[in-house]
Design a protein that fits this description.
It is a single chain. The protein is of the alpha+beta class. It has a domain of about 120 residues: Orthogonal Bundle (Transferase(Phosphotransferase), domain 1). The chain has a 7-stranded antiparallel beta sheet with strand order 6-7-5-4-3-18-13. Helix 1 packs across helix 2, helix 1 packs across helix 3 and helix 7 runs antiparallel to helix 8. It is elongated. The protein starts with 12 loop residues before the first helix and ends with a strand. Its EC number is 2.7.11.1. This is Serine/threonine-protein kinase RIO2. It comes from Coccomyxa viridis.
């Protein structure tokens, strides 16, 4: 389902409250019956039924009556809840074009209240039927039941926690800004994915940077587990930025050495085959790297103390298949409608206007499906609907395309909904 943030402009207070009530009901119900939704939302008589009809038309909820009559959130409905929360916090004021799409996440360009471009990553675990995701990812510990929305929420929580720790300790990663549900708001990096680079002015320097970054992470107690050309960005000054962190594990993990060696070999192989560079030195070794590490600086221990427990990492005992395209608070169960209804008290929202945003660059790891360049952007030119450029727009479906010349990246301008 395509995210059309423009629909937020027309969502009533009753529909939004019903959407929140349905989310709360799904804490311990796979399909939430209408009486429970009504008890949580506490709308006037008949208000929930009418709201559910409107939400169904927008494909924000799904009606299921196979076993018993009830409703569940769709991924689009979960998107709306996350975006609305970010808007209420003053972190997001407009949603622009999609700049990345992958098996486990989507990335959209957004504006903050100051008009600066940022990126929001929406995790979507299970979208492509990852049947082994529960075994290969450590978010669930020993839970026997789960939902894809819950998995996505945990993935986002883990990514935000790791990105925040890495950024605070001087690692070249995007700046984490906010986190809500399955959404992570981060700074927008003006750089190109390494997978798109055809040549580098100083290929040796970039290679050395990647290996230094890989070993620096290990010395601080972390292994990226997906350290490859799809998750490394390089700017015009040949400086690199690392993205995508949900799969990171501790160096104490049972498979840490294997995962570290795989990351190092992935980088070495790419530089040799794609860029024609072969380093005279061997890739760094895991044991030699840890031998020079200072345990007092271990980030895996600090992350465990800050809320993302080391036990989550230790539970991962299955070889993690590298994903070339990816991208903590656990909801507590509650069966009483009265005990959770008071938590539906977010801001009422803001008026919406429409403008358009310039093009942004994505990583094409195959010709037909753009990869997830989580924070990759070209020079975006945002304009509001009152500007002169709005006179040269034509409607094509639900998007507004600017008829003026495009940027050097070759993409036409896409619509942006101001929230």
């Amino acid at each position: 389902m395509k995210l059309d943030a423009n629909s937020l402009r027309y969502m009533s207070k009753e529909e939004y409250r019903t959407l929140q009530a349905l989310e709360l009901g799904q804490r311990n119900h796979e399909i939430v019956p209408v009486p429970l939704i009504d008890g949580i939302a506490k709308l006037r008589h008949g208000g929930v039924v009418n709201a559910l009809r409107g939400l169904m038309r927008q494909k924000l909820v799904h009606h299921d009556n196979q076993k018993y009559d009830g409703y569940r959130l769709t991924s689009l409905g979960y998107d709306f809840l996350a975006l609305k929360a970010l808007v209420n916090r003053g972190a997001v004021s407009a949603v622009g074009r999609q700049i990345g799409v992958g098996k486990e996440s989507d990335v959209f360009e957004v504006l903050d209240t100051k008009g600066e471009a940022q990126a929001v990553k929406l995790h979507r675990l299970g979208r492509t039927s990852f049947r082994a995701v529960k075994a290969k990812r450590d978010y669930l510990q020993h839970r026997t039941s789960f939902s894809w929305l819950y998995l996505s929420r945990l993935a986002a929580a883990k990514e935000y926690a790791f990105m925040k720790a890495l950024h605070e300790n001087g690692f070249p990663v995007p700046r984490p800004l906010e986190h809500n549900r399955h959404a992570v708001l981060m700074s927008l990096i003006d750089a190109t994915p390494l997978c798109q680079v055809q040549a580098l002015q100083d290929v040796g320097r970039v290679y050395n940077q990647t290996m230094v970054l890989l070993t620096s992470l290990a010395k601080r107690g972390l292994v990226h587990c997906d350290f490859n050309e799809f998750n490394i960005l390089v700017d015009e000054a040949c400086n690199i930025t690392l993205i995508d962190f949900p799969q990171m594990v501790s160096t104490a993990h049972v498979n840490a050495e294997e995962l570290f060696d795989r990351d190092a070999e992935s980088v070495r192989r790419f530089f040799g085959s794609k860029l024609g560079y072969v380093s005279p030195a061997d890739p760094p070794g895991f044991k030699a790297t840890l031998a020079s590490a200072n345990q007092a600086d271990a980030l895996d221990i600090k992350l465990s103390a800050s809320g993302f427990k080391q036990g989550d990492q230790d539970a991962l005992d299955v070889y993690m298949k590298p994903q070339q395209v990816h991208c903590t608070s656990t909801p507590s169960a509650s069966s009483s409608a009265s005990s959770v209804s008071d938590s539906i008290d977010e801001d009422e929202g803001r008026s919406l206007t429409t403008g358009h945003v310039g093009s942004a660059q994505v990583c094409d790891n195959n010709p037909d499906s753009p990869a997830i360049g989580a924070v990759v952007a070209g020079p975006a030119a945002w304009t509001q609907s009152g500007d002169d450029t709005s006179k040269h727009t034509s409607m094509e479906g639900n998007e507004i395309y600017d008829d003026t010349p495009t940027s050097s990246y070759g993409s036409r301008s896409h619509a942006v909904q101001c929230l």
